[in-house]
Amino acid sequence: MLTDCVPIPVTDFRHLIFVRARWLLLLGAWLFILPAHATPSLFGYQEAQQNQSPSFSQWIRVLERHIREDLPEADCTAATLNRCHLRQLQAFLNGIRGLPLHEQLQRINAYANEKRYIIDLENYGLDDYWAIAREFLYNGGDCEDYALTKMFSLLWLGFDPEQLRIVILQDTNLRVPHAVLAVYDHNDILVLDNQIQQVVDHRQIVHYVPVYSINEKHWWIHTPVL
Fold first, then answer.
1. What is the DSSP string of 99-133?
2. How far is it, in rounded angstroms, from Cα 37 to Cα 49?
3. 48 burial via Cβ count (<10 Å: 0-12, 13-18, 19+)
4. CATH fold of 10-223, please?
5. Axis-axis angle for helices 143-156, 101-113 (nearest 10)
6. Domain edges within the chain
7. Residue 191's beta-bridge partner residues?
8. What is the pLDDT of residues 63-111, one digit of tens each?
């Protein structure tokens, strides 16, 4: 669903053109199913909740289930992925559990953003791969991997799943698809982004065009306000 979240080398221009064409065709198809009652929201774009999509909801549940699986014990210097890397994250989360909401968000954003950025093609040999938390903690990852680990971290802290969305968008500065975590807090929407060290209000970001967003239960289409 998502290509690299950074500028793509010249040698990859033909692939980029193909991906963008597919992206625009998909967005065009979504416009035909956008209901009339959509209301303005994230990044100033209107959104419309869609009927439950099994491909999204089941996929997210699979990720959460895998995150909770036990793996063989080993130390964090081992050459293979093991439970130690997930245990470090859980210890970090336990240490911030009693902090105010905004401080928790800032700590989680900074913790994840320290991990190594690497595109899926180099990491897994695939154009697009959405990693679970333990894979990301060991291997690093690209934009959606940062967003997913932040989302699951907040779920472990007890956040309501309805507050959290993975947002797939277009970065108009870098001219590439991107993914962030949006946290809905009362009448505000806060953005956790691997390209921004601070947690920011969505209204402070003017170069993001949201396409769709998802959480465990629902998904939304985002389009310009007409």
1. S-HHHHHHHHHHHHHTSPB--HHHHHSSS-----H
2. 10
3. middle
4. C8orf32 fold (3.10.620)
5. 140
6. 10-223
7. 182, 200
8. 665 555 535 455 666 655 556 667 888 899 999 999 999 999 999 999 9
